[in-house]
């Protein structure tokens, strides 16, 4: 949403010019400034500023929902795609969880691509799910697949049907990977038959539609990312960040499982000669990538993120369920603040208002959802929910929403 | 779909969705969720709402989700340079739709970009052509047979499943003098075997970085290959156009003196391949030579190698080529003080080729070990280098077709400690 004339009735040309003269160029600048001081600086009426703020806030604000419903929905929509290997399933706690990103890393030749191919074939065969295989290194080829296919014990028609559900995209760079992820969002997937032009007997291209994609596999992420990191510009890390967010939000919005293949590399300067076990020498490549995906830290400004912010609002008179008495209210907040670190979710507890406003706004502008907890019961439900989802954050605030 | 302790999820109606309200939506009716009551959904209030009323709590069935419009792409994933992205974000242009309908003039006045840059932004955001994916079934149908380049060594061919495969990158690494260049030369000759006798019938491109290419060796190998083809074809098949001259003519040669020249040749390949559609083999001998000497920065090297591999494999699949790359060996020092001989160019390079073949000595015999292959088990075979090229070791009864000569050229022998 842009700060343009006509955005609301209060934002006229005149007001716009005055705001620009005070150095307000975009929505973020506007929201971060205190309206009273802005009113004084720019000589725009406070009432106008307030109504503009309300409109922006309404546009970006998320809708409050109770934690109970969220838990119910999470329980209902949690599905696990089994991997076809019971040991692996036990290790993963049931299989590939929808809404999560799993990284497979290993040295060369150990079998990462083979594992992914098996995952894809199993998912397509046993569950009839569509699979999107993003393959920058073109590691899927008839060479690899034909032996896998021959070994399957199912009937040829079933196998053929299953193979028709696995789609392969070969992007040549990271922007191609982003585009390929868009493909997974489409509800009905279109495929195209290539014309056999060279033999003269051309088949006209036909369009078929498939079901919704439930598994996305990105084989060999370093193949597209290492060239970016090699450049002297710092853009590479930002793009990794974006890709991480895109994958995670794809997984959680579309409720599908994402598998990403990574390489390992040797940690430097680890020759202490203490005979450490071989695992400690190896670490997954693309170090900072893991920070973004596996522990969702940091607030992503202006990007879609899946961090859910829970807001405990001290309610006004009409929806009171927490105690209205001020001292009791503070006690409740303190109690909650103490309880939070003991829970297993990653929580940021912030009580002072101006800082919270800022965090709140940027969080919301990034697409976070807000839930209203009206009672402590809701709060405990929320804690239960944290066990299902690992990336929830908690804010406490004293003002009205 | 198995979910051990949980109920089966409902069908597509249960997927979380996010919907952004249009400015014209007048009734943000929160009590009526847009789809069935089982759908988790959340609507954002419209801009016309003046007081965000907390009493408007959603119904018990509504749970959090957001539905996106299909064209809601971020501008930052279009592949624009960072400076342009920052200027766009500064002026609040975040999604595709923010830029829709604007002329480049309007965009540049709003953001401070030059006219050329804003034209680029408008063009990229409007381009909505997503490459349609191919399913595995189609791929299998199109590539029903995988052609191989025979190495004329039966043991090696059976190790590889038929020979050096097309549409893949094969890496051959080993100590000096083991026969890496010999294998490359042999492949350059074998690829030209006419299809009437079961060969690929294509031409070869040789990128030489070490200066180890000798035309004399090629001639020896070619002579033998012609005899071989005549033997296979017999009287019925005419292989008269498969001559020394034709074989030597079918090998295109590039001498690269630094890594930049290698990259330049690779960049030039698409046009080369278009003008020579019969090209089915690319040999880079060796890829390690320049990358080990000219590169102090390991990260940059890894990035460049990945990039080159990507280009090569995409060309290989598109134009139906085999790519053979040779590599050198280096010593890796373990923690305990022991050392091991491994392939050069590091771990990252190990992920790049599709197949890896390690050549080493076992006493007096040359051994080829398959260390990475998608379709075969890792195992080893013996081979030898003869005047005619790469051949099997002679068995006790000398009735094998492969060994036409028993003359051995002077070979460089570097002895390693026995395994």
From TrEMBL, chain A:
GO molecular function, one term: four-way junction DNA binding
Pfam family, one: RAD51D_N
Record domain RecA family profile: where: 77-265
Record's subcellular location: Nucleus
Superkingdom, natural source: Eukaryota
GO cellular component, one term: replication fork
Keyword field: Nucleus
GO biological process: DNA strand invasion; double-strand break repair via homologous recombination; reciprocal meiotic recombination; telomere maintenance
Name of the featured protein: DNA repair protein RAD51-like 2
């Amino acid at each position: 949403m842009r700060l343009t004339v006509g955005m609301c009735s209060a934002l006229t040309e005149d007001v716009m010019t005055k705001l620009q003269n005070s150095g307000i160029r975009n929505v973020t600048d506007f929201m971060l400034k205190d309206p009273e001081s802005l009113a004084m600086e720019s000589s725009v009426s406070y009432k106008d500023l307030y109504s503009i703020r309300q409109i922006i806030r309404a546009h970006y604000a998320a809708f409050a929902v109770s934690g109970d419903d969220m838990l119910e929905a999470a329980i209902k929509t949690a599905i696990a795609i089994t991997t076809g290997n019971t040991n692996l399933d036990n290790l993963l706690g049931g299989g590939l969880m929808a809404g999560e990103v799993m990284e497979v890393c290993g040295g060369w030749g150990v079998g990462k691509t083979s594992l992914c191919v098996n995952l894809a074939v199993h998912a397509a065969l046993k569950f009839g799910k569509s699979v999107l295989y993003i393959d920058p290194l073109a590691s899927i080829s008839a060479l690899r697949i034909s032996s896998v296919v021959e070994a399957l014990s199912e009937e040829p028609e079933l196998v053929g049907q299953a193979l028709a559900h696995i789609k392969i995209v070969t992007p040549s760079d990271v922007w191609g990977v982003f585009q390929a992820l868009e493909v997974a969002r489409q509800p009905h997937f279109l495929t195209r038959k290539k014309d056999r032009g060279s033999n003269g007997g051309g088949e006209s291209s036909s369009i078929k539609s498939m079901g919704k994609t439930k598994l996305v596999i990105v084989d060999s992420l370093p193949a597209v990312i290492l060239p970016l990191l090699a450049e002297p510009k710092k853009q590479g890390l930002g793009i990794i960040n974006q890709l991480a967010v895109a994958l995670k939000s794809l997984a959680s919005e579309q409720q599908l499982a994402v598998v990403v293949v990574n390489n390992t590399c040797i940690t430097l300067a680890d020759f202490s000669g203490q005979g450490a076990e071989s695992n400690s020498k190896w670490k997954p490549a693309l170090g900072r990538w893991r920070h973004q995906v596996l522990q969702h830290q940091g607030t992503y400004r202006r990007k879609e993120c899946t961090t859910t912010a829970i807001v405990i609002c001290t309610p006004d008179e009409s929806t009171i369920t927490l105690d209205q008495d001020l001292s009791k209210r503070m006690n409740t907040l303190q109690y909650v603040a103490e309880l939070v670190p003991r829970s297993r979710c990653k929580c940021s507890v912030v009580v002072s208002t101006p800082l919270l406003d800022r965090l709140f706004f940027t969080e919301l502008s990034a697409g976070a959802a807000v839930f209203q907890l009206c009672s402590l019961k809701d709060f405990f439900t929320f804690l239960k929910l944290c066990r299902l989802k690992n990336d929830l954050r908690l804010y406490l605030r004293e003002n009205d929403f | 779909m198995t979910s051990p302790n949980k109920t089966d999820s409902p069908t597509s109606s249960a997927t979380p969705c996010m919907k952004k309200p249009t400015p014209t939506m007048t009734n943000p009716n929160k009590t009526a969720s847009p789809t069935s009551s089982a759908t988790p959904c959340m609507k954002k209030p419209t801009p016309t709402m003046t007081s965000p009323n907390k009493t408007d709590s959603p119904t018990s069935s509504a749970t959090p989700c957001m539905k996106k419009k299909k064209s809601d792409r971020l501008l930052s994933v279009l592949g624009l340079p960072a400076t342009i992205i920052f200027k766009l974000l500064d002026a609040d242009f975040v999604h595709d739709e923010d830029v829709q309908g604007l002329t480049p003039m309007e965009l540049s006045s709003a953001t401070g970009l030059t006219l050329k840059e804003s034209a680029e932004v408008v063009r990229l955001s409007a381009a909505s052509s997503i490459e349609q994916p191919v399913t595995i079934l189609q791929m299998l149908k199109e590539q029903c047979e995988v052609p191989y380049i025979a190495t004329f060594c039966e043991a090696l061919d059976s190790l590889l499943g038929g020979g050096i495969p097309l549409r893949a990158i094969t890496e051959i690494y080993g100590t000096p003098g083991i026969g890496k260049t010999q294998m490359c030369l042999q492949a350059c000759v074998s690829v030209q075997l006419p299809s009437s006798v079961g060969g690929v019938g294509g031409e070869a491109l040789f990128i030489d970085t070490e200066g180890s290419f000798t035309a004399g060796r090629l001639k020896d190998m070619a002579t033998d290959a012609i005899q071989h083809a005549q033997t296979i074809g017999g009287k019925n098949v005419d292989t008269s156009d498969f001559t020394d001259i034709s074989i030597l003519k079918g090998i295109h040669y590039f001498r690269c003196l630094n890594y930049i020249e290698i990259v330049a040749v690779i960049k030039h390949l698409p046009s080369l391949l278009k003008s020579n559609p019969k090209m089915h083999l690319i040999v880079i001998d060796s890829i390690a030579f320049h990358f080990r000497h000219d590169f102090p920065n390991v990260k940059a090297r890894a990035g460049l190698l990945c990039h080159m591999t990507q280009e090569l494999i995409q060309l290989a699949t598109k134009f139906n080529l085999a790519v053979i790359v040779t590599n050198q060996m280096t010593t890796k020092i373990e923690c305990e003080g022991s050392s091991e001989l491994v392939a050069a160019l590091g771990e990252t390079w190990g992920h790049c080729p599709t197949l890896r073949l390690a050549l080493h000595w076992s006493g007096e015999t040359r051994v080829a070990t398959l260390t990475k292959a998608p379709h075969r088990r890792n195992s080893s075979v013996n081979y030898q280098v003869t005047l005619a090229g790469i051949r099997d070791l002679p068995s006790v009864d000398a009735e094998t077709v492969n060994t036409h000569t028993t003359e051995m050229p002077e070979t460089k022998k570097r002895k390693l400690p026995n395994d």
